[in-house]
């Protein structure tokens, strides 16, 4: 069975993305890293064919930071969100300007979501939409 999280084929892409982070990713990472908010986070994690900005495995939570490039990638974002949902992974999205203007509020929203129960993977019929990724 292929590896779903941190597929080895995406290792170089993940490494490159970690080296070329946006200032907003750097700022948020400075608040998430080293269990500062009580949970372990990873950055630039591949999940299936997609790469999430930040991922908390314990709570099955992805955080995506969106800049203007996401206005043109709505279909890509929709497909990625659908796969994550099938896998039981919740996605929180923040605009870059939210991180820049009020990082405290962003962290507060993340903490609220972390306190909720972890989602569960979707039933088999929804999982069948991704046969090459999900068994």
Write a structural description.
The protein has 135 residues and is α+β, with helices and mostly antiparallel strands. The chain has a single domain (8-127), classed as 3-Layer(aba) Sandwich (Endonuclease, Chain A). The protein contains 6 helices and 4 strands. The chain has helices spanning 11-19, 23-32, 74-86, 96-101, 103-115, 124-127; strands spanning 42-47, 50-56, 61-66, 90-95. A 4-stranded mixed β-sheet has the order 1-2-3-4, with helices on both faces. Strand 3, helix 3 (74-86) and strand 4 form a beta-alpha-beta unit. The model has no long low-confidence stretch (mean pLDDT 83). This is DUF559 domain-containing protein. Residues 11-114 form the DUF559 domain.
Question: How would you summarize what this structure contains?
Answer:
With about 140 residues, this protein is of the alpha+beta class. It has 6 helices and 4 strands; from the N terminus they run H-H-E-E-E-H-E-H-H-H. The protein has a single domain, classed as Endonuclease, Chain A (3-Layer(aba) Sandwich), CATH 3.40.960.10.
What would the keywords be for this entry?
135 residues; alpha+beta; Endonuclease, Chain A; four-stranded mixed beta sheet
